[in-house]
Design goal:
This protein is mainly beta. It has one helix at 2-16; strands at 45-58, 61-76, 81-92, 102-105, 108-117, 125-134, 147-157, 162-172, 178-189, 194-202, 204-206, 216-227, 230-240, 247-256. It contains one helix and 14 strands; from the N terminus they run αββββββββββββββ. A twelve-stranded antiparallel beta barrel has the order 1-2-3-5-6-7-8-9-10-12-13-14.
Length: 257
Amino acid sequence: MIGRFVVAMSLLAASTLSAQSPSEPISTDRPDFTESSTLVPRGRVQFESGVTFSESSRNSGAVKSSTYPEFLFRFGVSNHIELRAGQSFTSIAPTVGQPARVTGRDDLYLGFKIGLVEQRGSRPEFAILAQTTLATGDSKTTASGTYPGLALLAGWQLAPAWSLALGVEGTRVSGDAYEVTPSASLGRALSSHLKGYAELYTVLPVMSESGAPKPAYANGGLALLLSNNAQIDARIGAGLGGAADRYFFGFGFGFRR
């Protein structure tokens, strides 16, 4: 069933989507949470990486952690399909009852993005992202399962300096529990090489225990274009409500060849 769906979406994309020009500036899926609806041009390889520091609250007190190198490999297979793979590590600082730092490899991430249509007037650019994690991480950092997800992505160029990206992502997080994560990111070009964004997103449990917390986050950041094929970025954000992390910040880069 999933295979037929992917084939159908690929055929639709092939008839409606033209290739992104390799001469256009690099478009990354970082530093915001909302994935871009834009694909890597056909035959091009793109590397994205960074580090995020965060602090959350637990009964035993504050928990500080870092995630690195947030590596994401993206390859443009065709005008409308992109393959993706990612790997990262998590390090958790010592807390009450945990005298030593915990560091381990996270689960492997695999996925592909299908571009559906380009923006035309008020109709946004659309893409679908199918992805999963595999239980390949270390014992203290693995989710101990295969957790697939699917996201619908939309993007608008509102004006020469403004853009809007929306995403709705559904992910399996345990045997019979799922999460739906809607997000919205508003971008603003501050110069020909510098752009900023402000974003809101929340995590909504589905088919889980009633009364489960619904963490929400607000963040913003900057991305500096070094060339058409290279970018560096920085972000900072905070949780809205007790169920979310207190704060997080990070920086990274993207490179295309």
